[in-house]
């Protein structure tokens, strides 16, 4: 797969790009939503792990039907938030020709 323009940047350039993106009003709103998605996903993973560990000895089928989808949905939240962040920052980089 080809690398995007954002992926070819070094760490300092990426930090500068994120700072420029956060200065934009719509950029700040979208960035905050992506952070919220990450936090929601991480909390879901932690909660599903807690449910699994706390009920390990007495797990039933219904417990599996609750824990596994919660874990998978939370993992999907984290992965998609990361992909959306890369896509949004890459589009911002291309439009502004930084």
Task: Identify the notable features of this structure and list them briefly.
3 helices; single chain; 98 residues; 81% helix; 0% strand; mainly alpha
Quick summary of this structure?
This protein is mostly helical and 98 residues long.
Written account of the structure:
It contains three helices and no strands. The protein has 98 residues and is mainly α. It is elongated and about 55 Å long.
Give the helices and strands, then pairings.
Blueprint: H1 11-23, H2 25-54, H3 61-96
> What is the CA-based Rg, rounded?
18 Å
Provide a count of the helices: 3
The assigned structural class equals mainly alpha
Quaternary structure annotation:
single chain
* Morphology: elongated
Number of separate strands: 0
């Amino acid at each position: 797969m080809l690398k995007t323009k954002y992926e070819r940047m070094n760490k300092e350039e990426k930090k500068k790009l994120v700072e420029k993106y956060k200065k934009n009003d719509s950029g700040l709103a979208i960035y905050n939503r992506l952070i919220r998605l990450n936090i929601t996903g991480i909390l879901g993973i932690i909660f599903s792990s807690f449910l699994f560990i706390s009920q390990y000895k007495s797990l039933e089928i219904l417990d599996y039907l609750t824990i596994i989808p919660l874990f998978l949905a939370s993992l999907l939240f984290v992965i998609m938030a990361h992909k959306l962040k890369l896509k949004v920052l890459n589009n911002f980089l291309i439009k502004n020709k930084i």
